[in-house]
Please model this.
Amino acid sequence: MTPQPPAFELYGLCKRFGTKQAVDHVSLTVPSGSFYGLVGPNGAGKTTSLTMAVGLLRPDSGGARVFGADVWSDPLRAKSMIGVLPDGMAMPERLTGRELLTYLAQLRGLGPEQVGERVDDLLTGLGLDEAENTLIIEYSAGMRKKIGLAGALVHAPRLLVLDEPFEAVDPISATVIKGILRSFTEGGGSVIISSHVMALVEQICDHVGVIARGRVLASGTTAEVRGGHAGLEEAFVDLVGAPEPVKGFAWLA
Ligand SMILES: Nc1ncnc2c1ncn2[C@@H]1O[C@H](COP(=O)(O)OP(=O)(O)OP(=O)(O)O)[C@@H](O)[C@H]1O
Model:
């Protein structure tokens, strides 16, 4: 029997902006059926790596495969299998939430019945039904995250790539989103999220990659990356380095 390829493989990804090497040979493997957390400090290269890996930003070198399909040389096959929640991506602000989801579902080639059923389910499930006729421009940051997540789910992808899905989301909605993602992985789906929140990653992810200054410092199961530390946060600080104590704010006291 041929072994199943990983859900997502990032291989040798590099990106330089001017003199800044934002991503430096990033390679990660997201096993099929896993819930993977990509963590790292601000500016570590998480968004740049994920944006290249889903085919939205061309890497200087390296690439990514989705269930064996190369994102850059076989984009139609690769992209049909992924749902993406990009960070800070522009949205069609003059569409309502329902119009946006309907449009995305139609772009993915779904028929009218499927479109209606899935758009209804997603709007209700994510608590956006009352705002379904509100323009996106009027959505709060958390509502934008939720409609973005709904758009990533609408074609029932095999892999979800979610950049900071819990940022700006209230605790009730976060619980709903966690539940949706858990049932997605229980049904065989694979997820990669980026996050700064170690407690959340430790709670929901079975695999973790730690990235800093554009490089992968550790990757593996959450238990492997935690190692002998009390928690993931301690392992993270140990890997990335504790910050210097803050000095020079005497005027603030
Ligand atoms: N379009 C761009 N032009 C120039 N520099 C960029 C660009 N995008 C990212 N960078 C730089 O690349 C580095 C990595 O940024 P990136 O957004 O990937 O980090 P991140 O880990 O997602 O950070 P955060 O957790 O703060 O969102 C940073 O130093 C950032 O300033």
